[in-house]
Amino acid sequence: MILNYIKIAWKVLLRHPFYTFITLFGISITLTVLMVVTSFMDHLLGVHYPEGNRDRSLFVTSVVQKDTTRSSRSSSPMSVRFIQTYLKTMQTPERVGMTSMFTFANAYVNGKRIKLFTKYTDADFWRVCTFEFLDGKPFAEQQIKTGDQVVVITDDFQKQYFEDDGKTVIGREVEIEGLRYRVIGVVKGSPATRPYSYADVYFPYTVPKSNYERGNMRGNFIAILMAKDKSELTTMQSEFQQAMSRIPQSGTEYGSKYTNFTIKAEGYADQYMTSFFGDDDSRRVFFFTAVAIILLMFMGLPALNLVNVNVGRMMERASEIGVRKAFGAPAKTLLYQFIVENIFITFIGGSLALVFSFVIIQLINNSGWIAYADLAINPTVFLVSLAVCFLFGLLSGVLPAFRMSKLKIVDALKS
Amino acid sequence: MIKLQNVEKVYRTSSVETLALNNINLTVNKGEFVSIMGPSGCGKSTLLNIMGLLDEPSQGHIEIDGRRVESYQDQKLARLRNEKLGFIFQSFHLINDLSVLDNVEIPLLYRNTSAKERRELAREALEKVGLSNRMKHFPKQLSGGQKQRVAIARAIVGRPEIILADEPTGNLDSVMGNEILAILQKLNADGATIIMVTHDDSMARQTHRLIRLFDGTQVQ
Q1: Which of A160, A353, B60, B201 is placed for a possible disulfide with A28 were both Cys, Cβ 3.0 to 4.6 Å?
Q2: Nearest CA-CA distance, residue A335 and chain B, Å
């Protein structure tokens, strides 16, 4: 029976090429935008290279110290001392990785300046992240302890700095900000949209210029607490809360007093939102409500337009409705038929949208706007798109289908 | 087979009330071939629509195969139409987007019939009306007579006991009209009860019984 409905839907599409164009154009453009946006959101917040353990990690990215007597507030990442004392000693995490936020540096090749993003990390950072080593290996605990001037670089930086002579660069030296470092590893780079792993060059945090010893609580480092598996996230969170509750609320930092502090360990998406909205939940609610309204309008307006087109198109088929009813189709079955047809048409639009989205995503990935961009139509994006197609089909099909299924047989046959 | 008691049909608009059928009482027995005649606008098609459960009377009772249908809801009425009734319309009402075979299959879509069985029954019905060589054609590729034969195949594919034909030869020339009548007579001879609205006296004379309407009232 469904095949019969689909045959009809296909023929109806072919009958009016202009309407078909308008309908499919509306559906495919709407869905393309939604799919590209979904893909971008997934790129930002999903589990992707080289942060392949995001789904079993909590991120501790900042500490906020307040002095209520002076209404002052200081917020920054943490010091190495704080991470080592309170986070590295936690029992639940499998690993606690530590990295600085990226900083800028310069290197010179034949008098030409290369602008760089650099990071200082510990050895566990390489275990918490899932970097692909194209050559060499990450620095080890011993090299951190001895403050070896070694470095892990990205393939992109390798191309810029070294001549492409096909030889390994492991063991060769790079000069950055006047200091020489020995290359021990080359990794495939991370996109700039992943700030906790993105850099061109990674140093051990104990090398000169890292300033890792400064600060009591606040500093320049963030910590990634990686649980053994997802199920331990809650336990890890509890242990984190307990550990933080044991720290005295007041103290002195960089010569200023604070009367209390707050610190959070959050999943990646939550901390991403916190970085935009702070701790103010009402701002978050407002933002998501606004996004929901915009999305609803974005889908609702073309759906309304499609309702209109559908009503017109279905009216042309009144005689068919009359015949089907006369030969025993109940209103419910006709309602189902028109919804199936509409969903079929929406899925054609969805397929076109899939092609358009693929092209746009490839353009974004290859344009160089985002280094190492890896936007993709992965199963999550595809399933979301499928659900959106279905919702769109329902939104635009139910009302006209309901109206048509209620037509009186004699009136339908007279049309 | 079909029994109408005190059936009335009134069409109402905000300002006008038109009595289309007035106190109709009639019975059509199993195996009968009945024709309904009368001038244009006398209520023939309205009567046929009410007998075929395509329209509701304003008053009165209808019995189909011993069942009073006034209280039936959409689902039950649809099932009764599907199992007991077959329709042939003057303007064929074929679905142009579907092939001849797909058109004939329509009544079977609303039964628990497998796709294979549907195909077989539709082929059989088309063979009965002499159109087995046009199964893959589309309605637009057929002549008027062929279209009406497809419509007859569609009406009989579900083996209904009653066939209601609303001026089935109205859009055809006399040769084609006679062919269609011959098919209907054959179906009647095979056991189907047929009720046919017609303008054509000579056709009506070839049926078992004639019901004549005038201004919504049964006069014969």
Answers
A1: A353
A2: 13
Q: What is the C-alpha separation between A101 and B218, in angstroms, rounded?
A: 95
> Do A41 and A127 share a domain, yes or no?
no
Are A221 and A320 part of one and the same domain?
no
For residue A179, give its domain range: 69-258
Tell me the mean pLDDT in the region B170-192. 88
Chain segment A286-316, per-residue pLDDT in tens: 888 888 888 778 777 777 777 777 777 777 8
**What is the ipTM metric for this complex?**
0.93
| Confidence class for position A146, pLDDT limits 50, 70, 90 | very high
List Cα–Cα distances, A69 to A250, A259, A260, A279, in angstroms. Answer: 12, 8, 11, 21
Residue pLDDT, tens place only, A98-116: 999 889 999 998 888 999 9
- Asked if B93 lies within 8 A of A323 by C-beta distance, the reply is yes
Asked whether residue A294 is domain-assigned, the answer is yes
- Whether residue A354 is found in the same domain as residue A232: no
Asked if A236 and A226 count as a contact pair (C-beta separation under 8 A), the reply is no
Residue A410: pLDDT above 80?
Answer: yes
Structural domain including B16 reads 2-218
In this structure, the answer to whether residues A34 and A88 fall within a common structural domain is no
Q: How far is CA A18 from CA A28, A319, A358, in A?
A: 15, 22, 25
Question: Which residue in chain A is spatially nearest to B47 when comparing CA positions?
Answer: A410
Let me know if residue A277 belongs to a domain.
no
For chain B positions 144-183, those within 8 Å of chain A (CB to CB) are 154, 158
Give the burial string for A238-253 (b: 16+ CB within 10 Å, else e): ebbeebbeeeeeeeeb
> Which residue, A384, A380, A358, A383, is CA-closest to A295?
A384
Tell me the one-letter amino acid at A20. T
Q: What is the pLDDT, as a whole number, of residue A197?
A: 96
Chain A residues close to B87, C-beta within 8 Å:
326-327
* A328: chain B residues, CB-CB within 8 Å: 78-79, 81-83, 107, 110-111, 158
CA distance B52 to B84: 9
More confident residue, A299 or A224: A224
Tokens encoding A337: 């038929």
Same domain, yes or no: A138 and A215: yes
